[in-house]
């Protein structure tokens, strides 16, 4: 009888605990960034990451999908927060990256950097702007300079 009495009392607690755990925002999410030769929505835009700006939570994973061949993703020197690791994927291969440190992460397609194939991941958190001024000063070449000006404007960050 006592066992039945305790299990009857525990059932609602277990249910509440399960609901709280499943509803918790602590579960990491998976996001996709696709690499294209031509933007499927606007063929005039060539060599693009879609989306080019992505906002995520610490601990989320970004999967770079090689939607069309010939691209990779690589962190841009000076455009990742202190304490995070640089990365470089292989050409035409999907690549997953989990980011834990709040801040901005600039990345490029190595062969198409100068023609503006760049993007930015914002890992949200209290200090997400901690490396912003450093990232804005980082060396960018060719059309990448123009694209990053557009990205900063999208984020509402003055050039």
CATH topology: Immunoglobulin-like
* Residues in helices, as a percent range: 25-40%
- What is the CATH superfamily label? Cupredoxins -  blue copper proteins
User: How many DSSP helices?
Assistant: 3
Strand content: 25-35%
Mean pLDDT over all positions: 90
Radius of gyration: 21 Å
How many distinct beta strands?
A: 8
Tally of discrete structural domains: 1
Could you tell me how far the N terminus lies from the C terminus, measured between alpha carbons in angstroms?
A: 72 Å
Task: Show unreliable segments.
Answer: 19-24
Using the alpha-carbon principal axes, give the shape. globular
Give the helix/strand class: alpha/beta
CATH top-level class: Mainly Beta
Order of helices and strands: HEEEEEEEEHH
What is the correct CATH architecture?
Sandwich
Q: What's the story with the biggest beta sheet?
A: 4 strands, mixed
Give me the side-by-side strand order of the main sheet.
Answer: 2-1-4-6
Keywords:
Immunoglobulin-like; alpha/beta; four-stranded mixed sheet; single chain; 159 residues
Task: Write the SSE topology.
Elements: H1 2-23, E1 30-38, E2 46-50, E3 53-56, E4 61-65, E5 74-75, E6 95-98, E7 103-108, E8 118-123, H2 132-137, H3 143-155
Please, could you describe this protein's structure?
Helices cover 26% and strands 26% of the residues. It is α/β, with parallel strands linked by helices and 159 residues long. The chain has one domain: Cupredoxins -  blue copper proteins (Immunoglobulin-like, Sandwich). The strands form two sheets. The chain has a four-stranded mixed sheet, with no helix packed on it. Strands 3-8-7-5 form a four-stranded mixed sheet, covered by helices on one side. A hairpin with a 7-residue loop joins strand 1 and strand 2 (46-50). It is globular, with a radius of gyration of 21 Å. The relative contact order is 0.16.
